Amino acid sequence: MLKGIPKILSPELLKVLAEMGHSDRLVISDGNFPAESMGKDAIVIRCDGHGVPEILDAILQVFPLDSYVEHPVNLMEVMPGDTVETPIWDTYKEIIRKYDDRGDAVVGNIERFAFYDEAKTAYAIIATGESALYANVMLQKGVVTD
Q: From 111's CA, which of 7, 27, 33, 44 has a CA 20 to 30 Å away?
């Protein structure tokens, strides 16, 4: 165990976060996301017993968001015609505001199939047991300055 590191971050996940470089992307996926098929060229880490918000909160304690792109955080857009509500997005924005002074401005949306294409090029995918729909979030790593 280490001091100051959220206990939810396993040694495997900490290793991956430390290995990632500037502009590498990380997907934190909900329970419906096809993590294994999307992650054929990525590291897939299973966190099935956890939800996306608790993983996101823990990661942002140690993971800087990219300051060189407009949206270093991206959500999967709801498909036209779907009547799904996404209150979890508000939870994500609340968490992000705790760790990044740019607040909600860092959050963008990517069309569902474009999100899948981007996920296929991610450095790693964290597969959670999150049951909320459209709860996938992609983070782009920034530079550690301190």
A: 44
Which of 30, 57, 66, 100 is an active site residue?
66
Look up 57 and say whether it is catalytic: no
d(CA 90, CA 97): 11
Q: Are 59 and 28 in contact (CB under 8 A)?
A: yes
8 A C-beta contact, residue 138 and residue 73: yes
For the stretch 44-93, pLDDT in tens is 999 999 999 999 999 999 999 999 999 999 999 999 999 999 999 999 99
Please give the helix or strand (H or E) that residue 115 lies within, else none. Answer: helix 112-119
Query: CATH 3.40.1650.10: does it fit domain 11-133?
Result: yes
For the entire predicted model, the pTM comes to 0.95
Cα gap 8→14, rounded to integer Å: 10
* CA pair distance 131, 61, nearest whole angstrom: 23
- Catalytic residue, chosen from 22, 68, 82, 90, is 22
User: Is 50 assigned a catalytic role?
Assistant: no
Cα separation of 92 and 21, whole Å? 23
Contact between residue 140 and residue 63 where contact means Cβ atoms under 8 Å apart: no
